[in-house]
Each structure stands twice: as C-alpha cells, then as structure tokens.
Amino acid sequence: MINVQSSENVSFETIEPDAAALIESLRDIGYTMPTAVADIVDNSLTANASHISIRVNADPDHAAVAVIDDGDGMSASELLEAMKPGSRTPTETRHKHDLGRFGLGLKTASFSQCRRLTVVTSRKGVRSTAIWDLDLVVKKNAWIVERRNSDEDIRYADLVGTDGTLVLWEKLDRAGLELGDQTLLRLLDETSKHLELVFHRFMKSEPGHGAIIFNVNGHKLEPSDPFAEWHDATIRQPQDRRQVAGGTAVIQAFILPHRNKVMSETEWKRMGLAEGHMRSQGFYLYRNRRLIRHATWFRMAPQHRLTQLARVKIDIGNESDAAWKIDVLKASASPPPALRNHLRQMIEGLGGKSKRVYRKRGAKLTEENPFPLWQRTKVNDTISYSLNSDHPFVSQFENSLTDLQSREFQELMRLFSAGLPLEALQHDMADNFEAVKQEVLDDTEMRSSCRILIEQLRTAEHNDREITKILSLVPPYSGAKKIVEELVNERKENE
User: Fold this and answer.
1) How large is the C-alpha radius of gyration of the chain?
2) H runs (alpha helix) in 4-147
3) What is the CATH number of domain 19-220?
4) Residue 166 contacts residue 70 (beta carbons within 8 Å)
5) Mean pLDDT of the chain
6) For 290-402, where are the alpha helices, taking DSSP H only?
7) Cα(123)–Cα(126) distance, integer angstroms
8) What pLDDT sits at residue 1?
9) Where are the domains of the chain?
10) In sequence order, which residues have a C-beta less than 8 Å from that of residue 164 and are 6 or more positions away?
C-alpha cells in the first residue's frame, strides 16, 4: 500500500513493505539454533527472571521448542508491541540491565527456526496470548497476528505462573526433522553448551546479582567459566577501567594454570572449553554480563601456542553498543579505535606472562622429560598414554594448518593414540625387555630437528645453559650430548 502526500513541488510517499517477501527474508539473518535460543533467553533475563526452563520435544510429528520464565510478564498491549518487528528504535536509551537493542530479537530469532511463534505471558495473573503464523502471513500477504482469549490448547502454557512468559516454537522447518529426532537432539546439546558459556555469569552469584537457574528438559545447566576462576593457580590481574566513547570498559586479564597444576584430565578439558586451550585464548567481551564475543584477539595478534593460557575479560554496558558495533545477532563486535592501542599493548604484555607459565613444564629439570612426545596421564588407578599435542614439533606443525586441517590432524592424533598396541608391548616387554628398541634418527635428522627445538626454546626465553639441561632429558637428544652442545654453541661461533 502506498500513501501519497504532496504539495506543489514535493511529494512524500509511504511505502509499506510486502509482508510475505519481508517476513521470509527476516528468517535468514544468520541465527543458529543455539544463538536463537540465547536471544530469547535475553528477554527473560531483562524481565528479571530467576528461573528459565527450556523444553524440547524432538518427535518429528510434534516437534517444539519452548522457553518458559518466571519474569515480570507483559500486559496485553505490551505483548502486541513486543510482537511487532522493530518494536523499539536502536537509538533509544535503554535500562542499564536491558540485554536488547534493536527490537527484533524475539521475532527474527524465532522466525529463523520456526514458522509458528506463540507467546503466552502473564502479569499478576492476567494472561495474554499472541501468535505469528508465517504460513498465514504469506497466504494473506499481510502482517496478521492472531490473538486468543484462552491458552488452554497451547503446549507448556500450564507452566507459566502468575508472572512469567512462554515463547513457543512450532513448525520447526529448519531443525533437520526430516532426518529423525537425532538432529534436533544434537542441536539441543549444542544449545545447552552455548548457553552454559554465554550466560555463565548469570548461572552463578556475582556481587549485586543472584544466581539464575537454567534447565533444559529438566537438566540443570552448569556455568562454563572460561577464566577458571575456581582454580587456585589461576593468575588474576587487577581490573583496568577505561572511559571510551561515552561508556566504560572494565578489563581484567587471567592466566590459566599450567597443565602440571591441574589435577585431572577432566578439569583440564573443562578449562579448554569446547574448542580446546589453543582456540580458547583471547578477549571475552561481555555486554551487561552477557557474552558477546569470545576467544578472539580482534585481529590484533594471532592465536599462538605460547599464549594459549591467556584470556581477557572485557565488560561494557549497553550504552557502548554503537562504539563497539554490536550487531543484531549479538555475535559481532569490534573495539573502538581509541581502545585498540591499549589492547594491543596488553596482548604483548600478556604474551610474556603466559609464556612464563607455559614454559614451567621444564622446571623440574632433574626429574622428568619436559617435552614428552607421549603424554602419560594417571587418573585414580587408571593410566593412559596419548600423543602430546603440546610437543614443540607437533604444535609448530599444527599452527601451520588451516582450521579444517587442524581438526583433521587432531582426529588423526587421537586415532594414533587409541591405536597404541598395549597388549603387544606388554607381551614383548615381559618376554624379552632388552630386545625392544626404538626407531633411531640418523645424524642429519638428529641435527635438523635439534636445531629447530633449540630455536623454539630460545624463543620461550630459555638461556643456553637451560636448553642444554632440558635436552639432556628429552629423547632422542638425551643420548646425543656432543651434538646438542655443538648446536647450542653454533650460534655463538657465528656471531
């Protein structure tokens, strides 16, 4: 529909968008199931919910995803306003605890996953219901929202209390239901892990904030703390407050414990998050305690093996959205130019601290091999051996790979580790120990690999005396003392 207002020289035309075309386009902003659910949870937290329950029915014939909270709820007029695309202007000043910005999240997040969105809300016992059905919008080519006087036939509506809200997704046409229920169950698992990281600070008490209870199909979610603040060996640096572009950025750096300080493999993996320590280093940007971006140096430095223990928390408020270029998905952000130099200098300083923690693997020079190719792990009464991904040659090779190649390389490493012929080794060692021999590097191979390792140790700030002692414990160089001394002194002779 086009409305025209005109004067003698100028005309103004109001052009209403085509409902069917635009609402289908709004489905492809770029959400995934985990990020879409997180956007719905944002609304629950803004509404002061203390308990957020996510229910998923994975049966392809009755599939549904529901988010139920015990927050403030909405009146009938507020519900209709919330169902309107672009319900609030991004330039509007928000309450300091508001997790929204564009007035699009409820709609775009929901439409990205389903074709039927139902919202049941209650405030002080007065209940209201509204439904977006995209098939009806397309059929009528009109912005039609269905309102109901009763929610008796709506799934999970009975879980809404005197105050609270239900957001229900049905007609889940993008959840892979044609492949059976396993695809949706896999998405549910990914969503749970995503929520445990993105909202980890809401799941535990912080000064001025109580813990929010999250559960998925009755299973309570546990916070995934990227800074390992529970561990005594984690190094916490003081907070640094910076005034930037009309807002405040509170910055705090953490250096995670070295592997030798961690009691179990389970705890070590917990610190590494889903992607492992190497890919989990970097800045973690929070907007009102909600994680926006994580594990990134904002293209100011590469992710490096020697800085894999460094992580930096940055807290900003919603008044800084424009300065940090927060996008609709709450998945993209970039530091303001006035802060980039400070962050770059911070990375350089953290590199040295992280390296010093990382290199402690060589501290017990007289007791153990500081660079084992095979890593021995003992948990309770169980001992296992696996290829050590932190070995200098392994890590150097992996750093040269693309992300896809790196994942394939890690899978190959695990395959080799799982294929260790323990029974044959046990038999041969018991039958004739002295007959069991290792492969031997020839002189050229020995010198070539030893030169590389010496340079890596120098990069990690070891002096020549320490390097000689370290290599005296590292096979096969432990049996080539003269070659090691010659190569250590080689640079001195050339200087």
Assistant:
1) 29
2) 19-25, 33-46, 76-83, 105-111, 134-140
3) 3.30.565.10
4) no
5) 86
6) 321-324, 337-358, 392-399
7) 5
8) 52
9) 19-220, 235-361, 374-494
10) 49, 68, 69, 70, 71, 73, 121, 122
Q: What is the pLDDT of residue 102?
A: 42
CA–CA dist 247, 237 (Å, integer): 22
Mean pLDDT, range 46-70, rounded to an integer: 95
- For residue 27, pLDDT over 50 is answered with yes
User: Which tokens go with 403?
Assistant: 């992300």
Report yes or no: 31 and 175 within 8 Å, Cβ to Cβ: no
Does the domain made of 235-361 have the CATH classification 1.10.3470? Answer: no
Characterize the bridge pairing of strands 374-379 and 382-387: antiparallel
Question: Residue 392: which region, alpha, beta or left (left: phi > 0; alpha: psi -120 to 50)?
Answer: alpha
Give per-residue pLDDT as tens, 288-322: 999 999 999 998 988 887 788 999 999 999 888 88
| pLDDT for 353 beyond 80 | no
Strand duo 51-57 + 213-216: pairing: parallel
Predicted TM-score (pTM) of the model is 0.69
Please enumerate in sequence order all residues whose Cβ is within 8 A of that of 444, keeping only pairs 6 or more positions apart, or say none. none
Q: How far is CA 479 from CA 190, 366, 474, 485, in A?
A: 48, 15, 9, 12
Q: Name the DSSP class of 312.
A: E
Residue 234 and residue 228 in contact, taking contact as beta carbons nearer than 8 Å: yes
Please compute the mean of the pLDDT values over residues 81-109 and round it to a whole number: 65
* CB < 8 Å & 24+ apart, contacts of 187-191: 187/33, 187/34, 188/56, 188/58, 188/216, 188/217, 190/33, 190/34, 191/33, 191/34, 191/37, 191/54, 191/216
The average pLDDT across 380-401 equals: 78
